[in-house]
Design a protein that fits this description.
Order of helices and strands: EHEEHEHEHEHHHHHH
Helix content: 40-55%
CATH superfamily of the largest domain: P-loop containing nucleotide triphosphate hydrolases
Largest sheet: 6 strands, mixed
CATH topology of the largest domain: Rossmann fold
Oligomer: single chain
Number of strands: 6
Radius of gyration: 19 Å
């Protein structure tokens, strides 16, 4: 029997979340950087040897947009998450600080405490370090006090990794696999409804007068029109790229253009009345930007 677990990679833009996933899932590395739009979803099957038996585990890996301010998109993704990998960049100390300042508090607004593995990436760039791996180790200890009784051998709750050189990438994901299996988490529909309501409340409180706040809500609004999140994200990325919209520095004009393209894409899947209603609602959101 295969156990499926939803996990999320959290951390600022350009810390290497996508590179870590590509190294882990496909064993490849690309040096070019493109911001993740919304989120990307990847699957990976693995075997985890626990004291009781060998488990067939499938990770459904969600790679989130790393730009702060997209809290509606991010918290929507947190619903039903079973574990997380928190990623900092050893060459940028602010990415370490933001884990406790932004990412962990945002995650815990939606879900209970879940197993977490802490990763400081780009260990191959030693001459450019702005902090040492020991600082991340101290942070990991604050959030994983019971993990040492679960992890065995060389596995631990924090790693210094290099996606480029394939250092400690497999180990970080394997450690999280042990932790999420040990949780023995069962499907709780009441808890999931609570998480959905919490994420929805965060979205409603987003500052829609800013370009990022408006785009944040529009992205979630678009994705909710599709039953298949993966398909929604593929279409979303295509249309945002076609509009030439930079999600790190979105403009009102760029958002309005993307909204038009979203409507064109929805024409393939929805009736004319629904498409028009969606278009008008999103135009109104974009036009409220100050």
């Amino acid at each position: 029997m295969t156990v499926k677990k939803k996990i999320a990679l959290l951390g600022d833009s350009a810390v290497g979340k996508t590179s870590l996933i590509r190294r882990y899932v496909f064993d490849v590395f690309e040096s070019s950087y493109i911001s993740t739009v919304g989120c990307k979803i990847t699957k990976k099957n693995l075997l985890i040897q626990r004291p009781d038996q060998t488990h067939n585990l499938t990770f459904v890996i969600w790679d989130l947009i790393g730009r702060e301010g997209y809290s509606a998109v991010q918290t929507r993704t947190f619903v039903g998450v079973d574990g997380a990998i928190l990623v900092a960049d050893l060459t940028r100390k602010e990415t370490l600080k933001s884990l406790e300042r932004y990412w962990i508090p945002l995650l815990f607004k939606v879900v209970e405490e879940v197993p977490m593995i802490f990763v400081c990436n780009k260990s191959d760039l030693k001459e450019d370090f702005e902090f040492q791996p020991e600082e991340l180790e101290d942070m990991a200890k604050r959030y994983n006090s019971a993990a040492d009784t679960i992890l065995r051998g060389t596995l631990k709750t924090n790693y210094s990794t290099s996606a480029k050189e394939a250092i400690n990438v497999e180990e970080a994901f394997e450690a999280l696999g042990h932790l999420v299996l040990a949780e023995g988490k069962y499907e709780d529909p009441v808890k999931k409804v609570y998480e959905i309501l919490t994420a929805t409340g965060i979205r409603r409180n987003s500052d829609r007068t800013t370009p990022i706040g408006a785009l944040d809500v529009i992205i979630v609004d678009f994705c909710e029109g599709f039953s298949d999140s993966r398909m929604a994200m593929v279409i979303l990325r295509q249309e945002i790229a076609r509009a030439g919209l930079d999600i790190n520095k979105p403009t009102k004009e760029g958002i309005l253009k993307a909204v038009e393209y979203f409507a064109e894409a929805e024409n393939e899947f929805m009736d004319e009345k629904t498409v028009f209603s969606n278009l008008e609602r999103r135009r109104e959101l974009a036009n409220d930007i100050k």
